[in-house]
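Hi support team,

I'm filing this because I wasn't sure whether my run with adenosine-5'-diphosphate finished correctly. The job status page said complete, but I'd like someone to confirm that the output block is well-formed before I use it downstream. Pasting the exact inputs I used:
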Amino acid sequence: MVFVLVINCGSSSLKYQLIDISGEKVLAKGLVERIGMSGSALIHQSAGREKISMEQPVADHQKAVELVLTALVDTGVVDSMQAIQAVGHRVVHGGEGFTQGVLVKDDVLAGIKKCIDLAPLHNPPNITGIEVCAQLMPGVPQVAVFDTAFHQTIPQSSYIYGLPYELYEKYRIRRYGFHGASHQYVAQRAAAMLGKPLEQLRLITCHLGNGASITAVAAGQSRATSMGLTPLEGLVMGTRCGDVDPAIVALIMEKEGLTPDQVVNDLLNKKSGVLGISGLSSDFRDLEQAASQGHPRAQLALEIFINRVKEYIGAYAALLNGIDALIFTAGLGENSPSIRQQICRNMDYLGLAVDNTKNDIRGQEADISATGATVRTLVIPTNEELMIARETEKIAVSYQLSAVSKGRG
Ligand code: ADP
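And here is everything the job wrote out:
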């Protein structure tokens, strides 16, 4: 058994999973929420047991990690903290320096800190998580796995913006892309489901959750993706605007008297998307229900969302010179037959057709293509934590082997 703890640290939350990577089994998972606020709580679930929720003060991330480790021991998931052999951290932005997961050492931590400019909201809590775990679990390898890494294979022709090139040289302003572990995981699963080597496949992976992105994958590599310098670009999302004319930013600032931070971090990131359009909710369940009852702006929000997804599928199919499969994943992609069906409607030009009966599933792997479709449509529940655990094990094991051989040498 090889126990890997996967940590995803947000500014006020910490999600975790303990995975036995030898059998790829989740032993426990949970969440510490409202860190540093009132009403903080640990929600913990061991495999095959009821979820437990413990409301208690959690002042900071150190306290949160301590709580998680205590819960893992107290609920009998592990005998002691020493049973955890490696920790894998989800890190949002790895810039251009990190093309795969890495063992965290001082220079790596410095490299992640350098990327704070690119992800000021996400990288600082990720770094805190790494520092706290390193302190509380001395000697246990800590591995950083980046959301951006999978997309580092995207060619310049897709990652350089139409801006003065010096801005890229000076500030590394370019497309990076996110949800890398998810796009990579579903691409690998698609190859297994289709019984073909990944190297021979051209895929479009649609990660449609609250945050949403689409990736063109050829031969197992990311070739284009809809998110950009930050996760704001691309699709219309739950609360993010996606692609807009950049001139709009200056206009809103002037007309509404807002600062750049207020426009970008608040208005465009948190108040836009289907929430902003509908004026109702960022949750697609609420929108689908309201739309079915005739709510005009909920209907409009869904139409706009679906339209944008179709536009990206068309663009990426053109870029890949046709595709072998279209994949739906994440909260909405896995759970909404109606959204999948509407996205795939009138796509027979591409060879895509969905069977309504096969499409009537939620949260499970399925080929939902209609008979005669020349392009497969697949639903694949994502598993970012498993991808992080696999990469963590790979890196931690090679580190331990090299430590042993150095010891012998
Ligand atoms: P996040 O980006 O926060 O990880 P998720 O991948 O968990 O998001 O997706 C959350 C979104 O998925 C919800 O906001 C909701 O809109 C959508 N969703 C989840 N279940 C369903 C469902 N049964 N029908 C429609 N939408 C759903």
